[in-house]
């Protein structure tokens, strides 16, 4: 019941600088649980924003009245990475030693928020369910930890896909659960669910 809503919500996205992504924003109105109406859209070119500062933007909605006020900060993303198995971030002995020193007992209280990080090697899946009429699937894997979400590439027409990717997450809460979900890519349609596992960090 407001034409001037205030949400005051914060969202974190992992943006890799080699990509030319646009931030797409849609504003919707709900009449009831079933009826929704699009009130407008706007777009932000992330590459055009100054880095390492908070940018205050007033964005007019395209083809509709009204505007959206946002604060967007582009900052270095620490701890989150995707790499191939052959260039695993912890494969270098010198880097392993630096990590060991960083998290040794002597440095425990240097940065209370820096709990540590989780490295996950996603190798392959075996005997997946066939989601296509051809008797095959187009599987990809999504990893979620807290508010962080990363995913593998899609392996097409395969029930035994091999991804061989390494994912690194910063740990913000030791009680978080790593959720690994396998989906079947289905073109423009929502992906089909093929299976899921949940791994509490405290069990690692």
From TrEMBL:
Topological relation to the membrane, as annotated: Multi-pass membrane protein
Gene3D superfamilies: C2 domain
Family per record: Belongs to the MCTP family.
Any one cellular-component term (Gene Ontology): synaptic vesicle membrane
Keywords: Calcium, Membrane, Metal-binding, Repeat, Transmembrane, Transmembrane helix
Name assigned to this protein: MCTP2 protein
Gene Ontology terms for molecular function: calcium ion binding
Record's signal peptide: none
Sequence ranges assigned to domain C2 in this UniProt record: 1-59, 93-204
Keyword hit for Secreted: no
Pfam families registered for this protein in UniProt: C2
InterPro entries assigned: C2_dom, C2_domain_sf
One Gene Ontology term from the biological process aspect of the record: regulation of neurotransmitter secretion
Compartments where located: Membrane
